[in-house]
Amino acid sequence: MEKPIVLDGICYSYSEQGIGPYWAFWESKHIHPPPDVWDYAGLHILKDGDHLTIYDKKTGKKVIWSGFISLWTDRIGRIHQRDVPRKKWARWFHKEYPAKFTPGLNQKRKPV
Fold first, then answer.
1. Which helix (H) or strand (E) holds 88?
2. Do the domain assignments include residue 16?
């Protein structure tokens, strides 16, 4: 059996040209120091079945949430993670909390 891919990075609220926001993960190795060049190769839009572990912002060591992504859309079009209050979830992504990400079967595998 193949060892699962576990990527280090941050939670990210991604939108482009007025579309979104999408809940995303940005891989650390694709975020380069000033002038803060973020390589799109590190961007993963979260999909059902992905696994995400979010760590506290202060130390980056304490797990504050971990689980499989299971998204739903409310009647006005906002996307939510099941069983997490939307404001809390949004804060983690807008404030770019540290995280680990394991792509689910729904994610396209990127060449190494």
1. helix 86-94
2. yes
Where are any strands of DSSP class E within the chain? 7-16, 19-27, 31-32, 37-38, 43-45, 51-55, 63-68, 71-73, 79-81, 98-102
* Residue 87: partners with Cβ closer than 8 Å, 6 or more residues away: none
pTM of the model: 0.87
53 lies in a domain?
A: yes
Q: How many structural domains does the chain have?
A: 1
* Structure confidence by residue, pLDDT tens digits, 36-68: 788 999 999 999 999 999 999 999 999 999 999
Structural domain span for residue 54:
7-102
